């Protein structure tokens, strides 16, 4: 599902807007415009006038807004702390910054971004006066704009450069050159390590020389504080002052390091532009970077956020949740794996039982075709087989077990020492086993049983002396 983002980059003399439509396959720059900040007689607020005109030109009524504040209105500081948990950092940040700020810390809105991590965590902090932020937000409300994100100006450009430039060197320098101010960013190992605002005027040779002197002084001081120094191999140039090709040429010539201007649009993959859009890279890069920060969900310092309350909490408490969440995920995966394995084994066992039932049925009734449940059909087949083998005109002799036991008891004289310990009754015969004192007693038992009319024939199946030599174990088969 696509959505629209209007990015508004507020500068000292103008605002720049870029309307970006995001989608699953590609992003499209639908329009862009630069509106000067001019005070009119009807309304003395130049920002409100410019926002009204920008809305008229780009028609962004249903777009989410991202605002970039003037970089020269922000206070940049670099500090280090002995821990890296976001919750602890936000608790101590005002106290760490207070000695270095020219205004009371309570009058500022402060955020930060991590510059490096190791034995200590380096923080690049950005602050803006609370009253100025409130005035800008009031103007946005009057202009019927509800910003989802409010970030320091030019910072988004540096952030997008570190993520989208595939050839970014280990040490690099980004200069966002405005008409009166230049924002300097040092980039170390793909992270923003330093930000400074310098007064500048690149419209003259003297102004360019003065700017380059300030840049060298800043870099020298920064390199002295770095364990491995700082030696940029590339200078990236951006900003509205470089829209003047002559000014850009003067600055490139004055820099002693290989320099190149930035066109962020060409660095971003899957980014298209409407045919009617008049693209001016040095002017529009900042607003495009703001839109990309929102579209890509980049972690950027911000002074006002309504994008996602859940994401704010996630950013703060992510280090505390990540470990238990991983453990919980592993436990759930193992539990699910155990359930699937047990289900597989049970299904395999059930399939084996069904297969055995089929084999038994086929072996018992080779001429029958099984239909339905095997057990029920087997019972039906057995009943049918029994019914088919019985002659209805003949009577079936029925012999009760109690009658057999009585016959055995009355047939053996009391003076014979005989002990019966096993009796197996079949359909038409009987097998009894026991023990006695001698082989002659076994013959007497056989003779007494044959004299009774219940048993047709009595056969001695076995007669053996036990290990002690005192008893004879015997087995008799009696035909009913």
Shape: rod-shaped
The overall strand count is 19
Q: What class do helices, strands and sheet pairing give?
A: alpha/beta
Q: What are the segments in which pLDDT stays under 50 over at least 5 consecutive residues? A: 388-397
The number of helical elements comes to: 12
Looking across the biggest beta sheet, what order are the strands in? 14-3-2-1-4-8-15
Q: What's the Cα radius of gyration?
A: 48 Å
For this entry, give a set of tags:
12 helices; 5-stranded mixed β-sheet; 19 strands; 28% strand; rod-shaped
Descriptive account of the structure:
With 480 residues, the protein is of the alpha/beta class. 40% of the residues lie in helices and 28% in strands. It is built from 12 helices and 19 strands. It has a 7-stranded mixed sheet with strand order 14-3-2-1-4-8-15. The protein has a 5-stranded mixed sheet with strand order 11-10-9-12-13, sandwiched between helices. The chain has a 4-stranded antiparallel sheet with strand order 16-17-19-18, covered by helices on one side. Strand 10 and strand 11 form a beta hairpin. The longest helix is centred in the last third of the chain and has 56 residues. The two termini are 89 Å apart.
Please sum up the structure shown:
The chain has 12 helices and 19 strands.
Q: What is the topology?
A:
Layout: E1 3-10, E2 14-22, E3 27-36, H1 46-58, E4 64-69, E5 75-81, H2 86-97, E6 108-116, E7 121-129, H3 130-142, E8 147-152, H4 155-164, E9 171-177, E10 181-188, E11 191-199, H5 205-224, E12 234-238, H6 245-254, E13 259-261, H7 264-267, E14 271-273, H8 281-296, E15 304-305, H9 309-364, H10 374-389, H11 401-411, E16 418-425, E17 429-436, H12 439-450, E18 457-465, E19 472-479
Parallel strand pairs: 1-4, 3-14, 4-8, 9-12, 12-13
Antiparallel strand pairs: 1-2, 2-3, 5-7, 6-7, 8-15, 9-10, 10-11, 16-17, 17-19, 18-19
Helix pairs in contact: 4-8
């Amino acid at each position: 599902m696509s959505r629209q983002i209007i990015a508004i980059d507020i500068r000292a003399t103008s605002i720049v807007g870029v309307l970006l439509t995001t989608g699953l396959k590609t992003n499209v720059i639908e329009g862009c415009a630069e509106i000067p900040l001019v005070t009119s007689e009807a309304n003395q607020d130049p920002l409100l006038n410019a926002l009204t005109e920008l809305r008229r030109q780009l028609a962004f009524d249903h777009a989410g807004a991202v605002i970039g504040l003037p970089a020269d209105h922000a206070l940049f500081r670099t500090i280090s702390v002995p821990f890296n948990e976001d919750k602890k950092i936000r608790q101590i940040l005002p106290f760490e910054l207070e000695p270095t700020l020219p205004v009371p810390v309570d009058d500022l809105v402060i955020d930060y971004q991590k510059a490096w991590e190791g034995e200590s965590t380096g923080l690049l902090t950005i602050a803006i006066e609370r009253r100025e932020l409130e005035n800008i937000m009031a103007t946005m409300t009057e202009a019927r704009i509800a910003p989802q994100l409010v970030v320091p100006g030019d910072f988004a450009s540096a952030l997008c450069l570190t993520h989208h430039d595939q050839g970014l060197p280990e040490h690099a320098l980004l200069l966002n050159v405005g008409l009166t101010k230049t924002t300097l960013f040092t980039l170390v190992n793909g992270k923003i390590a330093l930000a400074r605002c310098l007064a500048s005027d690149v419209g003259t040779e003297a102004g360019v020389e003065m700017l380059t002197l300030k840049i060298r002084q800043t870099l020298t001081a920064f390199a002295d504080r770095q364990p491995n120094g700082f030696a940029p191999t590339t200078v990236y140039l951006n900003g509205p002052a470089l829209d003047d090709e002559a000014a850009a040429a003067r600055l490139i010539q004055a820099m002693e390091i290989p320099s190149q201007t930035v066109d962020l649009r060409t660095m971003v993959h899957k980014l298209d532009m409407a045919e009617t859009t008049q693209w001016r890279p040095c002017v529009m890069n900042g607003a495009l970077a703001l839109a990309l920060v929102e579209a890509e969900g980049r972690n950027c310092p911000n002074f006002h956020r309504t994008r996602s309350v859940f994401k704010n909490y996630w950013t703060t408490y992510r280090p505390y949740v990540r470990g238990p969440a991983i453990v919980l995920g592993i436990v759930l995966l193992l539990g699910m794996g155990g359930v699937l394995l047990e289900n597989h084994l049970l299904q395999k066992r059930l399939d084996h039982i069904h297969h055995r039932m089929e084999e038994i049925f086929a072996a018992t009734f080779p001429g029958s075709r099984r239909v339905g449940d095997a057990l029920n059909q087997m019972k039906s087949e057995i009943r049918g087989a029994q019914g088919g083998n019985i002659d209805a005109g003949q009577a079936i002799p029925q012999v009760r077990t109690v009658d057999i036991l009585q016959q055995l008891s009355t047939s053996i004289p009391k003076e014979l020492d005989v002990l019966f310990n096993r009796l197996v009754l079949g359909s038409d015969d009987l097998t009894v086993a026991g023990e006695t004192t001698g082989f002659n007693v076994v013959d007497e038992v056989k003779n007494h049983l044959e004299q009774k009319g219940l048993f047709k024939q009595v056969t001695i199946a076995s007669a053996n002396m036990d290990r002690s030599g005192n008893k004879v174990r015997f087995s008799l088969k009696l035909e009913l």
